[in-house]
Amino acid sequence: MPGRRPGEKFDALRAAAARTANEELARVAEREGDVVAHLHEARPFRCECGRVGCCEVLEVSVAQYRAALESRARIAAHDHPAPDDEVVERHERHVLVR
Fold first, then answer.
1. Quick check: 36 pLDDT over 60?
2. CB atoms within 10 A of CB 6
3. Average pLDDT over the chain, rounded to whole?
4. Among 60, 61, 59, 48, which Cα is nearest to 18's?
5. Residue 77 is assigned to a structural domain of this protein
6. Residue 8: what pLDDT?
7. Directed axis angle between helix 62-70 and helix 12-31, to 10°?
8. Sequence-separated (6 or more) residues with CB below 8 Å from residue 64
9. Is 54 exposed, middle or buried (0-12, 13-18, 19+ CB in 10 A)?
10. 69-90, pLDDT tens digit by residue?
């Protein structure tokens, strides 16, 4: 793929699968008790980098995850963006990429 290092594999389907799982995690968190309190607690979300074999778990609040969705960004571990990904925001535990 253009812009990728040799041997690095990325698959939009893997990124989409992580996104689907994360959306369900966010829905479950929003159904739990006091929604306002839960929106700002860090919860485990899957890295959406799309790398082969990535199973990184990121601590992200539901509010941060929802903001990423609204901005059409993906959450990823700090060292996981591909060379052609644009890092649009940096956070303590993750980055947002497009």
1. no
2. 4
3. 85
4. 48
5. yes
6. 56
7. 130
8. 75, 91
9. middle
10. 999 999 999 999 988 899 999 9
Confidence of residue 41 (pLDDT cuts 50, 70, 90): confident
Q: With respect to residue 6, please indicate whether it lies within any of the assigned structural domains.
A: no
What is the separation, in whole angstroms, between the first and last Cα of the chain?
16
Residue 70 identity (one-letter amino acid): E
Does residue 83 lie in a domain region?
yes
- Tell me how many domains the chain contains: 1
The CA-based angle 51-54-56, given to 5 degrees, is 130
Domain span including residue 60: 12-97
- By the 8 A CB rule, do 91 and 64 touch? yes
Residue 54 lies in a domain: yes
Q: pTM of the entire structure? A: 0.76
Cβ count within 10 A of residue 50? 23
Percent of the chain past pLDDT 90, that is, above it, reads 54
